Amino acid sequence: MQKQAKFGVGIAIIVASMGFLAWLGYGESKTYYHTIAELPALHGSSRAHRIRVGGMVESGSIKRLPGHVDFVLEGEGKALRVSYVGGDPLPDTFVDKSQALVEGSLTKDGNFRAEHVQAKCASKYEAAPTVDGGSAKPGTM
Questions:
Q1: What is the rounded distance in angstroms from the CA atom of residue 88 to the CA atom of residue 116?
Q2: Distance CA 71, CA 60 (A)
Q3: Each residue of 49-68: pLDDT tens digit?
């Protein structure tokens, strides 16, 4: 009987530890999406959460520096200075005037510290032109 009790306590400790780690992981992976225009209105603990922001990369704003890449995102008539400090290389589609989605946190001075950057080139997803200059019709390609 004593071995069964020890086994039960051991299982309970393992299950409790796994539950605690899952709870911590869930809290760290939670990310809130905001627009650039919404960011100045965030106060208190809302500023401390992980945030995703999307916008267009301003032309000529990409500065590749040692350890980080600085650029400006534009959206809704507002601009946001972003400093990317992640370890992954930036996507090939990350260029001037591309759509980008950054994930990270706001700094005390109102800038954004990004740990992840996703980018797409809008022209890559347009319909292929046809010989007569019009757009392709469904089922003709």
A1: 8
A2: 8
A3: 788 999 999 999 999 999 99
Q: Where are the alpha helices (DSSP H) in 30-136?
A: 45-48
Sign of CA dihedral 43, 48, 49, 53: positive
Degrees, nearest 5: CA angle 25-31-34? 170
Q: How far apart are CA 24 and CA 12, in angstroms?
A: 18
Residue/partner pairs of 10-13 with CB below 8 Å, 24 or more apart: none
Distance, CA of 132 to CA of 123 (rounded, Å): 19
Helix (H, G, I), strand (E, B) or coil at 70: strand
For 2-23, give one letter per residue: b (16+ CB within 10 A) or e.
Answer: eeeeeeeeeeeeeeeeeeeeee
Reported confidence tier of residue 123, pLDDT bands at 50, 70, 90:
low
Q: What is the mean pLDDT of the chain?
A: 81
pLDDT in tens, 24-50: 776 656 677 788 888 888 777 666 678
Q: In the numeric block, which tokens belong to residue 44? A: 């208190």
